[in-house]
């Protein structure tokens, strides 16, 4: 279905007045671009809630102040907006819903693991195991270097029958990879209920739901489980915060795999991992990211 996209420009100081004007005319379904949000974001966000901000986000925030509304294609700009600078375009809602799917393609992560979206065809070659992923509303398509590096560590250190704890499971990719590599028992946990639902759906897609326990939860609270491998693909500050708790959930000789760590934060994360009682056994790098494997 096609819509008219109406972008209304104004000075940043007058942005709130524009929003109030629209609301007084029963227009509340709006998109607001406020350059002040960038400054507010960096001043108030807790550092463990984000690690890397894509430059495109900053470019959008820095592109001026405006409000966007969407209406039927025959919508006529009302008189109360006549003094504003306005641009219009006809857009298709299918572009919003499905455009991103064009960029999610099968990825061969290791010699044996291939990740592919459910809407793509892929014929597995000899020795390959294919993970089917439907991201849903959760984070993680498997193409990010941090995910790939975690799977490489899993392929190296996971032995058949081992138990695995996946902390912050997202779409369940790492848990499913562990199952494909022969894990005997898997606990996947995430604070986000959407992630839990996504992991459950993807586990069924890959016929490994029977060996997985999937919970909405926090590693630091009420979790009683010890594993041969603990994997946490998060962000650097969260890895630092959770490493002591991760140690409590490791069996003797367990391997602790972490990623979501920018190269520039490798040293501080490594120090936290060592302080939690681990010995670092391998670090791999890809692009600007690294993944750390450690053991007790």
Characterise the protein shown here.
The protein is α/β, with parallel strands linked by helices and 296 residues long. The protein folds into two domains: 98 residues, no CATH class; 151 residues, Vaccinia Virus protein VP39 (Rossmann fold). Helix 5 packs parallel to helix 6 and helix 8 runs parallel beside helix 9. The protein starts with a strand and ends with a strand. The mean pLDDT is 86.
Short description:
This protein is an alpha/beta fold.
Task: Give structural attributes.
296 residues; alpha/beta; 7-stranded mixed sheet; 4-stranded antiparallel sheet; 14 strands; elongated
What order do the helices and strands come in, and which of them pair?
Layout: E1 2-9, H1 15-24, E2 30-33, H2 36-44, H3 55-61, E3 66-71, E4 85-92, H4 93-98, E5 107-108, E6 113-117, E7 129-133, H5 145-157, E8 163-167, H6 173-180, E9 185-190, H7 193-205, E10 212-216, E11 227-233, H8 236-248, E12 250-262, H9 266-275, E13 279-286, E14 289-295
Parallel strand pairs: 6-7, 8-9, 8-11, 9-10, 11-12
Antiparallel strand pairs: 1-3, 1-4, 2-3, 5-6, 12-14, 13-14
Helix pairs in contact: 5-6, 8-9
Amino-to-carboxy terminus distance: 56 Å
Q: Give me the side-by-side strand order of the main sheet.
A: 10-9-8-11-12-14-13
Sheet/helix structural class: alpha/beta
Structure annotation, total helices: 9
Task: Evaluate the radius of gyration.
Answer: 23 Å
Global shape: elongated
CATH topology of the largest domain: Rossmann fold
- CATH superfamily membership of the largest domain, which one? Vaccinia Virus protein VP39
So, CATH architecture of the largest domain?
3-Layer(aba) Sandwich
Low-confidence stretches: none
How many separate structural domains? Answer: 2
Mean pLDDT: 86
What percentage of the residues does DSSP assign to strands (E)?
25-35%
- Along the chain, the helix and strand elements come as EHEHHEEHEEEHEHEHEEHEHEE
**Could you describe the largest sheet, including whether it forms a barrel?**
7 strands, mixed
